Amino acid sequence: MSVLAERKLAQQELPVTLSTWQIAVLRFRRNPLSMMGLVIIVGFVLIALLAPVLAPPAPNVRDPFMMPHAGYSPDPQPPRAGHPFGTTEQAFDIYYGFVWGARTAFRVGLIVVVTSVVIGILVGGVAGYYRGRVDEILMRIVDIFLAFPGLILAVVIVAILGPGLDNVMIALALVGWPGYARLLRGEILSVRERDYVEAARAMGASDPKIIIRHVLPNSIYPILVVSSLDMGSIVVAAAALSFLGLGAPVGYADWGQIISLSRNWIIGSGGNAFIFWYTVVFPGIALVLFTLGWNLLGDAFRDILDPRLRGST
Amino acid sequence: MTVFIARRLLLLPLVGIGVTILIFGLLQLLSPVQRASLYVTDPRQLLAVDQVIRTHGLDKPLYIQYVQWLWNVVRGDLGWSETAKMTVARAIRTFFPATLELTLYAFLPIVVLGIWLGTISAVHRDRIIDHFSRLFAIGGQSMPTFVWGLLLLMVFYGAWRLFPPGRLSLDASLYVLSPQFRAYTHLLTVDALLNRQFWIFLDALRHLVLPVVTLSLVSAATLVRVTRSSMLETLRQDYVRTARAKGLEEPRVINKHARKNAMIPVVTLSTLLFVGLLNGVLITETIFGYPGIGRWGGNAALQLDAAAVAGFALLNAGLLVIGNLTADVLYAWIDPRIRLG
Fold this sequence. Notes:
The complex is a heterodimer. By secondary structure, chain A is mainly alpha-helical. Helix content of chain A is 69%, strand content 0%. In chain A, helix 5 crosses helix 11. Chain B is 76% helix and 1% strand. A two-stranded antiparallel ribbon of chain B has the order 1-2. Chain B contains 16 helices and two strands. At the A-B interface, helix 6, helix 7, helix 11, helix 12 and helix 13 of A face helix 1, helix 6, helix 7, helix 12 and helix 13 of B.
């Protein structure tokens, strides 16, 4: 949109007083990349919700998350009728894994992010609001956790707890919370000095009430941005652990797991390197799009919420 | 400045103790028999595992065990790694140079590409080149290392046999292991040149290409974004307007006035990226079969090689702590305002 057209639009809209929310929606709709992110994520939500329709599990299957496999053919087979994305080694259906993998991705992402955020809010909130010695102790604990590279700490934790998707989620949540705690503490340190907090305190509001009603709502935005970016990176980290063989068991509908099944086939055979392309391309597309979608959404939230960027596009 | 560094250094042992407690605490989830490998220097000692448990106090209260283990760690006695078939200390000495070499080669393209793209993106804001570089950045960040790595291998090794996985081809590695070849630095490319074996240099370089490309694309993306936003912020400053107003030509304004001041977060991030590369190359090394510290750590985790996992975690945490310290010091050194705070 040209500058002139934008100014015109702004003039037209200015007389009507818009709520913050309406401005946010407007800014969001103006950015094609943000819209693209939204479309991608909504697409994945639909795939995840409609999984039983899109890829119905065979009747009387105990766990629909286990990819069906017809036989134990050691070689991957190309896309064909009944298997639109082909099959991996051991004849797991890639299309089924693609569809149900979306459920796995949302489950892992949501559980890990929500757990990390809750722990982060508790620790960071207490540290930032009470300051002093409590803050000092809690933040040193955070420092210790942050003294490990994330993926490596997760690998170590999963290695010790034993492989499996649940342990992967525990490990990623243990790795994820310190970042949120530190972020929120910093925000709260500045928010708690504002006049309205002072006013609430003067009116005799209790500490929990001040924190929940006044401090948290005003310091939560950066958390929203980071957690939407994390939705993508957590799923990639979980996929990386699966890829290393530390995640979901073989045959579980999980994108990282399907990619790891393709590892032996990427150099192809019989002089054709790309003969098994479908084993890496389809699960790869799923992972890349999922991450891309959340990254775009996170960027959009940042643009909308960061006051320093307001007024510029 | 000295006070600042001294204060930071004083905190180091505290964080160190915390890190060792965390690792030690995680190890407690294992049985004493599993933990015995932390205390031996030869697998044969494990035949008498009861004795190892008794002599090293694995049946004693936790705080005694912790002190004993810490004492071992301080002496550099990290136990036996079954995956590497050598002591953990030796495994680190063996695998670390490979990772260091990879990091050194990957770091330069990351920094050059990141800062260059970030700058032109900020200067030509909202033009085609900006859209292109933002797309590159967000795409690079969204591309998981293992998807990238596998695709690169498929094309450049599977189809064209150009860049093989591993660190050396067979004849080169035989020559390197032979007595004619003297290892000065354990960085193969450097050693090959010092030994005047140009073909080994080329062979080692060939093996470095794909992991370096994989690492650069993913890490440069982060740097592009940080450089861009930092440059945008600086270009808006009054002194940049002043510089333009007094008639300086644009390249000079951008390179001398704006970029210098925009470099503060970039330098910090680069330091952290460097340490991150030293640490986080686990996936990349695994895909390309590159015998570095990350691949060893990954294998050790898969096979529950407790001593190796603990040693690997200690090394990584140590490097990251030093990296953070370096970043802080650089930060304070570049930006005098930090020191006053």
